[in-house]
Specification:
The chain is mostly beta strands. Helices cover about 15% and strands about 45% of the residues. It is globular, with a radius of gyration of 19 Å.
Length: about 280
């Protein structure tokens, strides 16, 4: 086997270091769950710029910082720190704390689709006073498919994923959304869009259900059915400080719908996130 040289060796070395870092850094954002909530939404502005097609390897390292509910549906807000490690090889293979580990299986000038593994970090119910009587939702690896279609500043995207571990939510989650991107100035851009997310019965029961034996709630148990989980909207402002250094201002708003909105653990059915991120691309 030939020893990797040049940019390939450099890329493999950085990828190996980043993979170790990604494994070590997943803990600070322990409340993330779902495609329109958690780390994916919080770091959307940081990954809104597509990798440079002229580069074999593209790297994006940064950190996001902002305020979000302690859990999806909580009315109490916490400060969340979300590290970003995003590595892309030829716009074919990616490893990311935001996008997961995936491969683009088909692409042309405006469309791409592929598969990926993502990580649902579950829910530590000790972090929310109102839900301490409920069992934790354990972390789970998810397998999924995605697509993106670009046209004149518009992006239509879809995502579906399935929890693979029975100790986690072990359900299905699917999202469909669109974005519109435009320039504010030579160094500033804006991305705005909306999405809708649906979930299976298993997913909704893990995150919004209340076992019948649980004390302290107004109802004696709650078992949500499958259906729409929420609709969301987001705005990301992206400022390019230099050709490599950037920072963003990000805001996301979700409206819980269907059975999840009726759950006795939901104290706020219009949760939001507002924060910023800073990073470097090379």
């Amino acid at each position: 086997m030939k020893r990797p040289t040049g940019s390939c060796a450099r890329g493999l070395a950085i990828a190996a270091i980043a993979l170790a870092g990604a494994a070590a850094l997943h803990a600070p954002d322990a409340h993330a769950n779902g495609a329109t909530y958690g780390r994916e939404a919080r770091l959307a502005g940081a990954t809104a710029v597509l990798p440079n097609a002229e580069n074999e390897w593209n790297y994006n390292f940064g950190v996001g910082f902002g305020s979000a509910p302690g859990y999806f549906g909580d009315k109490d807000y916490d400060t969340h720190l979300s590290p970003l490690i995003d590595i892309d090889w030829r716009q074919r293979i990616f490893l990311s704390t935001q996008r997961g580990l995936g491969a683009v299986l088909f692409r042309n000038s405006s469309f791409r689709m592929g598969g990926r593994l993502t990580y649902d970090q579950g829910r530590d119910n000790g972090d929310g006073v109102f839900i301490r009587r409920l069992p934790d939702v354990d972390p789970s690896v998810e397998a999924g498919l995605f697509f993106e279609n670009y046209s004149a500043g518009w992006r239509l995207w879809g995502d579906a994923r399935k929890g693979l571990q029975s100790e986690g939510h072990n359900g299905l989650l699917g999202s469909l959304g669109f974005d519109r991107a435009g320039r504010i100035s030579e160094r500033a851009s804006i991305v705005a869009g909306a999405s809708i997310t649906a979930a299976s019965k298993r997913y909704n029961d893990a995150y919004f259900g209340v076992p019948r034996s649980t004390q302290g709630f107004a109802v004696a148990g709650f078992t949500p059915e499958a259906g729409i989980r929420d609709v969301g909207a987001h705005v990301n402002l992206i400022f390019q400080v230099t050709d490599q250094i950037y920072f963003t201002v990000d805001a996301t708003l979700n409206l819980l719908l269907g059975d999840p909105s009726k759950s006795p653990i939901v104290r706020e059915d219009l949760p939001f996130y507002i924060g910023t991120s800073v990073g470097v691309r090379f």
